[in-house]
Amino acid sequence: MSIELSNSWTQLMEFIIQSASQFEVSPIVKYTALSLFADRFCPSLTRYIQGRNGEGNWLLHPMRESNLQLFALTSLWISSKIHDSPPVSVKCFKSLGDKVIKEQHFTTRDFFEAEIVFMQVLDFEIGASNIPFLFLQELLLQFKIIDLILVQLILLLKGSGKSWRTCEL
Q1: Each residue of 29-58: pLDDT tens digit?
Q2: End-to-end CA distance of the chain
């Protein structure tokens, strides 16, 4: 069984981005959700289903667009649990799902079940898949600190009447 994501692939990525915007989550939550779903879940899903020899969860058989949307929201929920304190509640995700998933309505219990299936597909390995983003975020923070120190130094020098350009450190 293969999952056809060519046309709906873009729609699913847009779905995650729009859902993230609805909750006003931080960029790291959004990027982690995209990474978990696109880079890890979708590529592993076919192998997972084939490895189960046709047996499996109702969320995987048959695979519908609404089920993929549920898994997309689940990736955002897991990402929120990793990076947000407190995370976005499952009730909020269910409410959004009721509004945006037209084909089928899911219960709160379905979200919990989707989370379990999602984690099983990933073999419970969610790891730090955003190491480059975290590195850049930390680097940006360091630059902001350096910028604040330089601004304070310039203000201090202006107050003393010296020019920061002629000052020897």
Answers
A1: 998 899 899 888 988 888 887 776 556 777
A2: 67
Classify burial at 77, counting beta carbons within 10 Å of its beta carbon; exposed 0-12, middle 13-18, buried 19 or more.
buried
Q: Which residue matches tokens 């000052």?
A: 167
Collect all residues with Cβ–Cβ distance below 8 Å to 20 and sequence separation of at least 6. 29, 30, 33, 76
From the list 64, 78, 103, the residue with the least C-alpha distance to 19 is 78
**What's the predicted TM-score (pTM) here?**
0.71
Distance (Å, whole) CA 111 – CA 71: 8
Structure tokens at 28: 């790291």
pLDDT tens for each residue of 140-162:
778 888 878 888 877 887 777 66
Within 10 angstroms of residue 8's Cβ, the number of other Cβ atoms is 14
User: d(Cα 56, Cα 60) in Å, to the nearest integer?
Assistant: 7
